[in-house]
Structures are given as C-alpha cells and as structure tokens.
Design a protein that fits this description.
The complex is a heterotrimer. By secondary structure, chain B is of the alpha+beta class. Chain B has 3 helices and 15 strands. In chain B, strands 2, 3, 4, 5, 10, 11 and 12 form a 7-stranded antiparallel β-sheet that branches. The longest helix of chain B is centred in the last third of the chain and has 29 residues, at 184-212. The relative contact order of chain B is 0.20. Chain C is elongated and about 80 Å long. The two termini of chain C are 24 Å apart. At the B-C interface, strand 1, helix 1, strand 13, strand 14 and strand 15 of B face strand 1, helix 1, strand 9 and strand 11 of C.
Chain lengths: 218, 266, 223
C-alpha cells in the first residue's frame, strides 16, 4: 500500500499521458504482472481527433480522467471509450484502496504508452503517506535515479494542522529529459505529492529502489 | 485404630502441596467478545507454585502467598474509520513543462481495520484456605485439597500494564499506515481511551477468576484395588488389597500433622 | 505427642493390616505354603511347589512327603493372648499350622516278574501348631524403595512338649526342621514400602521399623 512504483498504480498514484498525435489508441488495464502484454486488442479506446483547421494555434488542452477500479473481480476502466482532442491529456487513477496495483498499457499507429515505461509527455504522480528517505530508480535498467526525503510536520496545535492541510495542495515537480531528472533531490512533508513529468525518455519507471529484487547476473 | 496410618508434618506437607501444584500443570482457556467498542479474541494460561503451607485442624490447609502465574494474549480488531476523521488529499494542479497543467483528483483515504496483538505475563499472589476432601470416584481414591471460596485477585496493575502494552504494540502498526502521521497520536489516544482500565478489567476478571474458583490440588490418588506386588511370570499373579476406606484430616498435637488413614481387606 | 516426632513422616501398620497383607499374598500365591514331592505335587504350579524326595538307598523313589502351612497369623507386641513364646517390646509372634504328610510305603519283590517291587503308598498326616518368635527387619534401597519382613528368632511346637517319654532331642529335631522351613517361608513374605504408606508418599527411611501397641512403625522424610 502506498509503495512508490509507477509499474503498480494504487490509491494516491496518477498516470497521465498527453496525446499529441491524432489517432485511435487501444489500451488495457492490467495487474502489474501483466505489463508485458500487448494492448493492440485492448478493450479500452482513446480516440484522438486532430486539431480543427490548418496552422492554427492549438486550442487550450484539456484533461480527461479515467477511473480504474475492481468490478465483479475484474479491473475495469471507466469510461471505456474516451474521445479527446489532440494535445489533450488523459489521466488514470483509482479512488479505491482495495484496487490492486495496476498498469496502463496502450498502443496505436502513432505510438504507444505505458505507466510502467514512461517515454514521451507522460506524467506519474505519487502522494507520499509515510516519512522516510526514498531512493527512486528506473526498474527498466537506465541510470536515472533521485531522492525524495519525506518529513513529518510537527503538529502541536490546531493551527499547525491547518497549515499542514494547506501544504497538501502544493505539488513538487521533477522534470525528466533524456537521462536527467531535475531536481534529483527533493524534500517534502507527509501527504504531499511529487510529479514526475517525463518529457522524453527511454521508457522509464519510477520505482523505490528497495522494491527491486536482486537477480543473479549470468 | 485404623489399619494403616500415614502422617506428614508441615514441612513434608509443604513438599506434597508444592508437588501437587506442579502436577496440576498449566491450564488454558480462550474466548472472545467486546473490549470497549472493539472486538477482540483472547486466551489465557495459568499455573500455580509456591506458597507457605499451614496445617489447621480439623481439615484446613492454608496456603499463604500462593503464586498464580498467568499469561494472557489479546488480538484486538480496531476499525480506524470509527476513531479517525474522514480525510482527503485535495486536488493538486501543477504546470508541466511540455505545455498545460495537470490536476490530480481529490483522493479520499479510507482508514483500514487493524489488528493489535498484545501479550502479557505476570504473577499474582493470593492467600486462601483449602479443605481436605477424601473421596472415592469411579474406583479411585482421591484426597483433594479444595479451595474455599474465591480469592479476590487485584488485577488493576495488570490492566494498567496491558494498556501500556497496547500503546507499545499499536504505535508501530499505526506508523505503517500511509497518511496517518498527523493523526497518529490522536489514534493512539482514542484507542487507549476507548478500551480503558475498566474495559480491560471487565475482561481480565472473567478470564482469570475461573482458574482459582474451585482450585483443587490432588495429593493422593490410588485405585481402590491397590496393587501390593506386581505379577511375576510364569506363575505368580499380582497381589492386591482393597482400600475400603481412606480418610484425611489435620490433627493437632505438639505439631500439626496431615494424617491419612486407611482400612483395608484382602 | 505427634506421630512424626522428630522426623517429617510417619507410617504405622496395625497387625490386622499385616495379616490382611499375608492373607492377600498367600491366597494369590498359595504355592508359597504348599510343598510336596512328586507323589503329591508332580510339578510346581500356582497352587503348590514341587520339591525333591528324600533319597534313601533301597526305598523306591525316595521318601515322599508334603508340607502344607496355613496362612500365618502375626501378633505384634503386646501379645493378644497366651503364647509359648511371648514377644517382648519390639518383637512379634507368628502362629501357623503345619500339616506334614508322609507317603508311607510298603514294597515287596515276591512274585515280581520284571524284578521291580510292588509298591503301595498310604499317606499319613499330622498337623502341628507352630509358634514363632521374631522381630521386623527392613531392607532399604533408596527413597520410596524398600521392604519389611520378619526375622525368625525361635519356634515352639507346644504339641511336642506334651509328649511324655520322648527324648528332648526329638522335639529339638522337629522344631529345627520346622524353624528352617518356616524361616524359608517367611523370607519370601516381604511388605514393600509403598504398601506401608498405601502409596501416599515416597518414604526416605530414617528410623524403624519398631513395634508398639500392635503397630509396626517407621519414620523418615519424603523425597
């Protein structure tokens, strides 16, 4: 619960993908272990319609939210079909603590996207619920890494509590371009959210280094 | 005059009683129900040891400061939604470098139900009179030392200690719950207050008192058909006598003695 | 005065209980009080013990006999009645009836076709009341492990004392024979500690056995 891992999204995590190319994208929502599956025949659809007119300035982009939850024992995404305009963003999240860790994997003629392999114009956010120092790495093997220090705000009186609640609406951004993350170290309070905005990368995950099982190198 | 008379003084009686306490071994019980507003299951085990033995005519054995050694275990189920406020992470909107901004939805936290395991062991001393009872049960003569009444057990110190143990046990459990940080102290206080000393005493009393109510130590157990000599193959059978009557009493003289008498027949 | 006195444990067995033990023992194992040669007891069984005949040259098969005892009765000091061997303090009487049966034989070789004599045997018996004087003896092997028996000091057969004209040596021989047989019998009869205490305690013997007021008494501690 509340583990830092973009491969297994849970309550407190969001995955967002900006769609800059028109087309139809199929995607699946799967338990994390199925992240190697193909989304070509996925049951969920995003239809990206091109911008109206030529050479016109792109309209202001919009965000479309998709809710993932468990229904009748299966992971489902609602709505199943989302129609958006080019440059809009689709954000997946779950409001339910009982939803198991899931991944969003999609593909279309114009490209693919995955919460477990953040590549182009993708965002992963995580709300940190527990104090500690988190070394995050890319589970897919690149050298990308960083550090998040989560501290507790001392609550002695009601005003302190109100101040803390106020801080929760402020997020912290880490910008990832190529093999670099800026800033590489951040300090936040429990309850606050960090956003990894992956402008361009080789399909990375954001994973707590302690979650990676060491495998023997042959 | 009885056929056989066996007498032990206070020193030997002490050995016999302490051996009987050991022979009783460890008794156990378990159960479940409410502990304050929470549900819980519990178990307890107990044994007895020590004590100063006094022989009081005509048939009383007084044990002073008998050790009641007990262990209790609780598994307390707490639905944190019942004691913590509803809490939601607000929507966060943040500009992203590749144009536009992104907003997370409001995320409401559902507190889990936690299980708090607590164990506690202690020894309480009590003093009580026991009566000598010689009786024949299903072909076996028994001389039992049976407690008179139910001694009062002071369980308040145990309740205080268990409450402290709950606090120690619950804190790391709560710490592992995401987003609880600022509410941690509130949660601990709420749990302890809800259970309270009275709540614990309400469980400890009915849980532990049955161990001492009717407490019986057995100091003599022999079949009515008493084997004197075992069989010796090939031709010698076992030699038995009948214990027709067994009586036990405390007899006063220059020193009080526990006296067992028997009448026998071939 | 306490029963345990300077010790921690006391056990006392009344003579009635001792006789109950003897009754139980010898009813279950009568072969300890019945002995006979092959003419009377062909083989040892639970009922009787086979013993060898007395070999004598010329007597076919040797002298055949049988000795049968009643269940002995023990009387601890002080004596319950008159006795030819009254026990003193710490002593006891054992009274038993001894039935001696002799296989009285006649044999005759006249008319024998195979050289073997014709033998006829007529059992003849006499019963003598035997009084024994003894004291208790104890064997102690460790806590709770030991037994008490009877050490025979002397015997009297009152019936022989009444026979006039017979030499005293005859009485002495018969008394000696019966003393030896009775002593052999009594050595088999031992009461274990756990019977003395009816299994209440594991006795560590420190004093006794002594006899007083018709009771066999021991003192000690418990393990």
């Amino acid at each position: 619960m509340n583990s830092l891992d973009s491969r297994f999204l849970r309550l407190g995590d969001c995955f967002a993908q900006k769609f800059s190319k028109a087309g139809t994208y199929k995607y699946i929502v799967t338990a994390g272990a199925g992240s190697c599956l193909s989304a070509a025949e996925g049951e969920y659809t995003i239809v990206v319609t091109p911008a109206k007119g030529k050479e016109k300035k792109a309209p202001e982009s919009s965000q479309h939210n998709v809710v993932v939850r468990v229904k009748d024992g299966n992971l489902v995404a609602e709505p199943a079909r989302t129609e958006i305009s080019m440059s809009d963003t689709v954000l997946w999240h779950t409001p339910d603590a009982a939803t198991p860790g899931f991944a969003v994997i999609g593909e279309g003629k114009e490209g693919s996207f995955s919460s477990g392999a953040l590549a182009v114009e993708a965002v992963y956010s995580h709300a940190f619920g527990s104090v500690g120092t988190y070394q995050w790495v890319d589970a897919n093997g690149s050298n990308l890494r960083g550090e998040i220090v989560v501290e507790e705000m001392e609550i002695k009186e009601r005003n302190d509590c109100l101040k803390w609640i106020d801080t929760l609406s402020k997020g912290t951004l880490i910008h990832v371009v190529g093999g670099k993350a800026e800033p590489s170290k951040v300090k936040i309070l429990t309850g606050q959210t960090v956003f990894w905005a992956v402008e361009k990368a080789a399909g990375i995950s954001i994973t707590d280094s302690r979650l990676l099982v060491r495998r023997a190198v042959r | 005059m009885p056929d056989i008379t066996v007498a032990v003084d206070q020193s030997a009686a002490t050995t016999l009683l302490h051996d009987a306490e050991t022979a009783l071994g460890t008794q156990s019980t378990s159960g479940g129900g409410s502990l304050g507003p929470f549900s819980a299951s519990w178990n307890a085990s107990a044994s007895f040891s020590g004590g100063v033995i006094d022989l009081l005519p005509p048939n009383i054995i007084q044990i002073t400061n008998c050790n009641f050694n007990y262990s209790v275990g609780f598994s307390i189920s707490v639905d944190l939604n019942a004691i913590l406020p509803s809490f939601c992470l607000p929507q966060i909107c943040i500009p992203i470098p590749f144009d536009g901004s992104i907003c997370t939805p409001k995320i409401c936290i559902s507190w889990p139900t936690i299980t708090i395991p607590v164990s506690y062991s202690d020894t309480i001393q009590f003093t009580a009179d026991f009566s000598l009872v010689a009786h024949l049960v299903a072909g076996t003569w028994l001389v039992d030392v049976v407690i008179d009444g139910i001694p009062a057990l002071d369980l308040t110190p145990a309740a205080v200690a268990i409450l402290a143990a709950i606090e120690l046990a619950v804190t790391p459990i709560l710490l592992a719950i995401p987003f609880i940080g600022p509410f941690l102290a509130l949660a601990v206080d709420a749990i302890l207050t809800a259970i309270g000393i009275a709540g614990l005493l309400g469980v400890l009393g009915p849980l532990l008192t049955p161990f001492v109510a009717g407490l019986t130590f057995n100091i003599y157990k022999q079949p009515q058909v008493f084997p004197v000599l075992p069989n010796v193959p090939p031709i010698d059978p076992e030699v038995d006598i009948n214990l027709d009557l067994i009586q036990a009493a405390v007899v006063a003289s220059d020193k009080n003695e526990l006296v067992l008498t028997a009448n026998i027949s071939a | 005065m306490s029963l345990t006195q300077a010790n921690h444990v006391f056990a006392g067995v009344h003579e009635h209980a001792i006789n109950t033990f003897l009754q139980a023992f010898l009813t279950a194992r009568p072969h300890y009080i019945n002995y006979g040669t092959s003419a009377f007891v062909p083989a040892t069984t639970a009922a009787a013990t086979n013993v060898a005949s007395i070999a004598f040259p010329g007597i076919p098969g040797g002298i055949q006999y049988m000795v049968q005892f009643s269940i002995p009765v023990v009387d601890l000091f002080p004596p319950d009645g008159a006795s030819p061997l009254p026990p003193g303090p710490g002593e006891l009487n054992v009274k038993v009836n001894a039935k001696i049966t002799l296989g009285c034989m006649k044999w005759d070789s006249r008319g024998s076709t195979d050289g073997k004599p014709n033998v006829s045997m007529t059992p003849i018996s006499t019963t003598l009341t035997v009084w024994g004087l003894g004291r208790p003896d104890v064997r102690y092997f460790g806590p709770g492990n030991g037994d008490v028996g009877i050490q025979l000091l002397d015997v009297r057969i009152p019936a022989l004392a009444c026979v006039k004209g017979e030499p005293d040596s005859f009485e002495a021989i018969v008394e000696c024979i019966l003393r030896m047989v009775l002593q052999a019998l009594l050595e088999q009869l031992r009461l274990p500690f756990h019977a003395l205490t009816i299994g209440f305690i594991q006795l560590i013997l420190q004093r006794g056995p002594q006899i007083d007021a018709d009771q066999l008494e021991v003192w000690g501690d418990i393990s």
